[in-house]
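I have been asked to look over a protein record a colleague put together. This is what I was given:
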Amino acid sequence: MRVFFFGMGYSSQATAEALRRADPAVEIAGTVRDRNKAKALAEKGYDIGVFDGERPGALGEALSGASHVVISTPPGAQGDPVLRQHWQDLTRARELEWLCYFSTVGVYGDFGGGWVDESAPRHPVNERSRQRVVAEDEWQSFATERGVPLATLRLAGIYGPGRSTFERLREGTARRIVKPGQVFNRIHVADIGRITALAAQRRLAGAFNLADDEPAPPQDLVAHAAGLMGVEAPPEVAFEDAELSEMARSFYADNKRVSNAAIKAALGIELLYPTYREGLSAIAN
């Protein structure tokens, strides 16, 4: 297995590590946006090139010989940057047998706190999620044309070591913003890595949600993390009174409970961290 990651970031690195744990012989290559990051990842034994989305990267044999390609780069107003710059290279990749696109549960939009699964219509409420819908469709069209399976993995809010509520509490930036009825799903990065690695091994096809078992109000997570740290939780602030950026405010316009039943059934698994409680406890320890 030779796996190429467009966007060797947090989730991609977790996937690469999971693949190597399963089979140390797996060849890992990918892209980052700048040379300093490329050098750091190359020291882990990865074949890393630079791709900024604005122009084609010099990716050579690492891409043309890939058997599995994972796309973890955000789309823009002009569509998906990988397809825009490397469509021909992917078309010519002689060994390609599986594609994976990291999308977002934001494609569903607002369901007023109701449950959604993969059969729900996609009605995104912000421009970022609208661009994801376009990119999902672009990748599905490419996969169909190329005749290879595509797994579209719609990720909930990603957290894990070094990227959790603990960091915000230490920095003094955590807030307990309360909007009655508001819930969010999350997904631990280790679950993303494990599930994507299993999907790659089995060449899973279809659209699947990657979310935890328990959608919960965001203020509950902050209070729980503060308790684990042994510090006082920040005071609650009403959503109407909170000073939020337009981007932060847009997240609260999207209220739903995301079902993960399909991915668990497809792979025959349960999550390593089914709720934020297990996930935060693992980070704290």
